[in-house]
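This week, think about what follows.
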Amino acid sequence: MSKWWLPLSLVLILSTAIAEGKHGKLPPPKDWMRDVFGCTASPCVIYVSKGGIIGRFENAAEQALKEHTQVRIKGECSSSCAMFASKVRENVCLVRGKAWMGVHMGFTKHVYGPDGKEIFPNLTTGKKVAIFENPPKGYTQTGEYVYLDYGDDINGWAAFNYKMPATPEVYPLTWDEAMQFWKPCPE
């Protein structure tokens, strides 16, 4: 038997395994709606989301828009969740008597290493975020309150009505306030 037969057979076996998805297949695109909200179908029902890493919610918003995912909010949706709901407004409805939307000022932390260079977290994966909670000796930390991107209309309304003071407190919109920006779910 010639020497080329063994390498060729290995190539055929491996290419068949890859085609069948058993080895070496690239992972599918990240399912942000599942990871952030636990949703695997449309409509996605949000019972409680107090927010989290902004980049993850932005990725979930992009996915929801791309896949035309309908979203029913049936509980608390504050901070990054409200930002998500603002970005996908045409797909969102609020369940009367159960949903409530919360907005607040964000707090941006800056951490600098001993060399004076700023350290940036990966806002999508959350890596390097722990250093922002408890910087090691020799590191310095500063911070400031900032407006989060709830959309120009919500941010403008909140600023005009003093609904987002520079504190960590979340302002829960009343039903009538929320209805200025989102639609109610059909009953």
